[in-house]
Amino acid sequence: MTHRVLFVDDEKNVLSALRRTFHSDFLVETAGNAPEALKKFMAGEVFAVTITDMDMPGVTGRQLVQQIRRIAPWTARIILTGKPSIDTATEMLANDEIYRYLLKPSSPEKLREAIQEGIQWHIAKVEELGGINPGIILSSVRDLMPGDEITADVVSTQGNVLVRRGSIADAATIDALRRLEEAGRLITRVPVRRFS
Predict the structure, then answer these.
(1) Which CATH architecture has domain 137-193?
(2) pTM, whole model, 2 decimals?
(3) Which CATH fold would you assign to the domain 4-129?
(4) CA nearest 169: which of 186, 185, 191?
(5) Which residues contact 117 (CB under 8 A, 6 or more apart)?
(6) Which residues form the Response regulatory domain (predicted)?
(7) Across-strand partners of 4?
């Protein structure tokens, strides 16, 4: 089985090189920034591994992996950075924010090995969780109803958390989200659990 891998980097030439290098090994997807990557997760796409740059404008790689951990805990998260920080790496690994912390430039062999290990972690995590939760339904804000439980953080296009996971939607929250959606400031797919 070929697993889906998402590369996130704000440099198009880096994404092109990664796609060329790994297209025969994995199902490769790319995103040019964190909000674009989050939209994929919020739309229900499943990735075994996500590899993201740390320093991106707007939303950092660290903020992205924190969001992914909440939305898709079964995805192995890898940081690939050209500006290493031992303190940050140690903290992120200790807090289980990431699976691996790699430095640019990383050889294709080293990165391929890290991805393959991440896939094994993903398979074990899905087993541990009893599968990818089928109880989560993806809804647009337009379909959100009072009483629906939001099962992942709702984020703005800048990566700010607007509604926390585990919140019960009420009319005022839904109205506020609709206004943000109309202004183009919201990642519009909202994971919810229906009680009906």
Answers:
(1) Alpha-Beta Complex (3.90)
(2) 0.72
(3) Rossmann fold (3.40.50)
(4) 191
(5) 76, 99, 100
(6) 4-119
(7) 27
